[in-house]
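Bumping with the actual sequence this time:
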Amino acid sequence: MNKKLCINDKVISSSFGLGVIVDIERPEGTNRDFYVIESVDHNIRTMVPLEKSATFRLLTPQNDLNDHLKLLSSEVPTPEFDSKKDRITYFKGQVTHQNIDEVFMNVRTLVSINDRGAAETKILSNFLDNIVLEVMTVFDLEEAEAKDLVNKSLEQKFKI
């Protein structure tokens, strides 16, 4: 992460969805500091070590998110994999990456795969669910409006 995270920052993660950093603390018996994040939609509290901050990120500013949405339907070269199993393993590993450029590139790549299986479709749906959640929050939209915006950005190549 480029920016130092602070208390009250809104963050997003594939693990807990949308959250707010409520504290930075060092639990008794440890020598590490943790972000304490309250999930907005799941009513849970998560502690993430400061050095693991790549597993979540700040919400994307409106202009940047809009730019990413405009590129969502653009073609990308499909990477070569030795097998479908290798491809699935690769994308499962990508789920924890929270860099906005990587998230959108993974969505674009998954959308472009013609022989996408159930596991890859599920991974794609999870990526898109998080994008919808971020669009709802950043643009202050209802869920249906956010889904419509993302679907239009996908040019109906994949429907959520």
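The tokens above came from a reply further down the thread. The chain has two domains: 10-58, 62-153.
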